[in-house]
Design brief:
- There is one protein chain.
- The protein is of the alpha/beta class and about 325 residues long.
- The chain has a domain of about 220 residues: NAD(P)-binding Rossmann-like Domain (Rossmann fold).
- About 40% of the residues lie in helices and about 20% in strands.
- It has nine helices and 13 strands.
- A seven-stranded parallel β-sheet has the order 3-2-1-4-5-6-11, sandwiched between helices. A two-stranded parallel ribbon has the order 7-10. It has a two-stranded parallel ribbon with strand order 8-13.
- Strand 4, helix 3 and strand 5 form a beta-alpha-beta unit.
- Helix 2 crosses helix 3, helix 3 packs parallel to helix 4 and helix 7 packs across helix 9.
- About 40% of the residues are buried.
């Protein structure tokens, strides 16, 4: 960040989630990172790397925010309440809790003069729809399709407005359907990890969607690489950026990849989705490529194979 002080103090919210846990492990291994402050909603149930300074609490508490922000160089804001599949009955609380947490964090950053923020928005849930099946650029139309999407978009707006009144280097990433090893024990989000777990346990998966739905999947290491480009940059990388593979894969095509890797059929029952979803979501990530040279490196089959091998190793250790 500062050439005269190359060591970076980093803070990560949502450290217990899929992205957060991976980010904590990744950045704590980098020599340029002197400290990783990790915020959890409940005490972590694992041994943490030496550089990690954990705290437990709610971002709506200003004291918790100040614990993260004091003398920090950069904050990666991953904390979010709710899931893309959440129903409308929880809309008001989901939106108000997420926006309140982000607002409190921004005020704490201002008090403590933290200059750099990375916010993880959604590339898979916020875009309106497509007629010509052309990858979405960042200026494409968006929609409050679900409480999850609404929370992400409102937080984007809050961050953008705050950055206009305070010298904040704010980077917003719209990340499309990340998957990877940290998803293995999660059941509410991340179809790739969930389905592989079902196959291993010889269980069926009930999916509220259509096999024709096309999504853009990205392996976790590629997401972490994008974070790293910003955290370690000597210049501001501000604005809104799509982060995905820029490759569309229908759910039926995904299941064929999974069947090829595992050598087993994908046991899936499809039901109509009561929540509206975009039938074709592929991201144009050229803006971030032009700014940094970053692009997705992991092909879908390779990423699934890494995940499947890790899942089998974990199962074998538990059985031993």
């Amino acid at each position: 960040m500062n050439p005269s002080n190359p060591k970076i103090k980093l803070a990560i919210t949502g450290a217990g989630g899929f992205l957060g846990s991976a980010a904590v492990d990744f950045f704590s291994q980098l020599p340029e990172i002197s400290e990783v402050r990790a915020l959890y909603s409940s005490p972590p149930q694992r041994v943490l790397p030496e550089k990690v300074k954990p705290s437990v609490g709610d971002l709506k508490n200003p004291l918790i925010c100040d614990t993260l922000s004091t003398e920090a160089d950069c904050i990666i804001h991953l904390a979010h309440r709710g899931f893309p599949s959440d129903r409308e009955k929880s809309a008001r609380k989901t939106i108000s809790d997420n926006v309140a947490a982000t607002s409190e964090l921004l005020q704490s950053m201002q008090r403590n003069q933290v200059k750099r923020l990375i916010y993880a928005s959604s590339g898979g849930a916020v875009y309106l729809g497509v007629e010509k099946k052309k990858p979405f650029k960042e200026n494409a139309s968006t929609v409050f399709r679900t409480p999850y999407a609404a929370s992400k978009l409102i937080n984007e707006y809050v961050i953008r407005e705050f950055a206009q009144s305070y010298p904040l280097e704010a980077t917003v990433f719209r990340i499309s359907n990340p998957y990877g090893i940290g998803q293995l024990n999660r059941t509410q989000q991340g179809i790739v990890g969930v389905l592989l777990g079902k196959i291993l346990r010889k269980e069926r998966l009930t999916l509220w969607s259509s096999p024709q739905i096309v999504k853009d999947f990205i392996y976790i290491d590629d997401v972490l690489s994008a974070f790293h480009r910003v955290v370690g940059s000597s210049r501001p990388l501000t604005g809104l950026f799509n982060i995905g593979s820029s490759q569309g894969l229908s759910l039926s095509e995904l299941f064929k990849v999974i069947e090829k890797v595992t050598g087993q059929p994908a046991p899936i029952d499809f039901n109509p989705n009561p929540i509206p979803e975009c039938s074709w979501t592929v991201l144009d990530c050229s803006k971030f490529f032009q700014a940094t040279g970053w692009k997705c490196q992991t092909q879908m089959e390779h990423g699934v194979r890494i995940l499947w091998n890790a899942l089998n190793q974990t199962d074998q250790k538990q059985a031993a």
